[in-house]
Fold each of these.
Amino acid sequence: MERMLGRSWNDLIGRSIHEVLALPDDQAHSPFHRMLVSHHRESVELERGDHWLSVAIDPIRDEAGVVKGALGIVSDISVHKRLEEELRRRADDLAIADRRKDEFLAMLAHELRNPLAPILNSLEVIRLERNDVHATEEALEIAGRQVKHMSHLLEDLLDVSRFTRGKVQLRKEPLDLVTVARHAVEAARPAIVAGHHELTCLWPDYALWIEGDPTRLGQVVSNLLNNAAKYTEARGKITLKVERVGGEAVILVRDNGIGLSPEMLARVFDLFAQADLSLDRSQGGLGIGLTLVRSLVELHGGNITAYSSGLGRGSDFVVRIPLPAQVLRPVAKAALPPDTAEFRPWRILVVDDSVDAARSLTRVLKLWGHTVSTAFDGPSAIEIAAAEVFDVMILDIGLPGMDGYQVAAQIRTAEGDRHALLVALTGYGQEEDVRRALQAGFDCHLVKPVDLDRLRELLADPEKYRIPRNGRAVANQRAD
């Protein structure tokens, strides 16, 4: 009792139970009075400092059943109360997570459907205006932009998955952060131009050398600029500033947009968090861009902080990355000899159960000057590969019945001394998928929708990507 009540026993002697437990003494609220009326157990829970107490009042009856007194049992239920509070908190967190999941799925469907409309419209323009070169080129540019937009959305989703599983590795090198930021501005320019925003860039008059991954740091800056463009009203002002402050490289992205409420400021870097998901302010995006930014900055040993004076007052995002102890310079690379190799046409086999995908890729490859055969399932591919000699085979993985891994394994077994370049072209892009592809006999792994420039580069020099069949795969030989 001394421990539970925080008072000495001598201090309790001579006091009534109401005084000891600080119970109400009026008849309406006292458990003792209620017990006398009901003749049954009464109980009450009390919070006393860091402790929760449960007081149970049991009646004491004589032989005739008349209540003559009461037995008060006091129990410390602090642990149970803490568990209840933890369960309640977790239930609230799960409810919030479930709501955000539903919001995210709705936004994902919205974002993936949005590009389909201009793509379909562009195709119709090309069909109807095929003799109008200007209209056709404009339609092709629109369709190309939308396909790249969808690809970026999917890449962001894959990045989130990789971060969640700790699978992201940086390719660090000495780099000039100013140069990286300049390139990132060009990547984000379409969103800035679309919003008719005024962008001000403030650079130092010196190179700011750090150790980092140029691709990932460019992603940090472009994501911040895209976020500023998305949440700033048309014709807004956006500032990008890169500078050295003490021992840190600092990147500031400032806008005069819709700002952040204190509640949103606290969770702006949370996964799937968006400032406003209402239909009239659906600016696009999946609520994962800032999550990726924070993860990438932390992988570089830095931190990011968001500031806002409130709704309608704009936002600041400040990235701080520690500078190396000594000044870095990139290692000079030997000048490459000029490319004097002439174009070489290849015999190529394209295998995909999607007839549209197979035929469209076949047509592209033929327009590039290659000789192409097409198959739409695994057995047909194996049959064609056995009857003809191919330099390159591009196989889909998700084939019905016999998947691409099995097809590749059988082709490798049957080809003998021949060694075609096997390219996995698939929608499965996780590291495990790449590993399985190499084990099955593929030389390289490309993700749909294929980057045609990368595919053209691969076909320009297949030997660069061919893996010797000695059971070992060299990572930097893969086209992915």
Amino acid sequence: MRKGSALHAVGLAWLVAGCLDISSAFVIWMTKGVPLGRGLHGISAALLGRDVSYQGGSTTVALGLALHFFIMLCWTLAFYLASRLLPFLQRRPIPSGIAWGLIVYLIMYWEVVPRSRIGPRPHSFNISATSDLTAILIHICLIGLPIALIVSRFASPTGTDS
């Protein structure tokens, strides 16, 4: 890939962060004894409701996976566009990636999931809780940092992307 291609930068960041994040979800689900299909049904339940999603079979499993990657595309595009407006995000990818991961965590866990049909209301935060700490680290290491590092590496720093 050549430096300066917005499509390549966004596409690669999206796929890497999306695969890392869903892989972490798979590992967490497996350690908790949750079948992967059931976990993906849970994602589609945010859009369809629990009853429809869990009765939808492989179609709603596929929808859950598609929704996961759509959401990751939105986060990747948002970072890319922010980096066009705030060039320091691209010049300083590590602090930017850490901050982006925290922002994604806060919005997803405190706004999106609680407002969906499946999430707890309201989210209770406990930094010493293993699940919150794990979620924060996942969002920093597997979402924020890969997006910021890949955009920094492959997007044009001047905003003259082709």
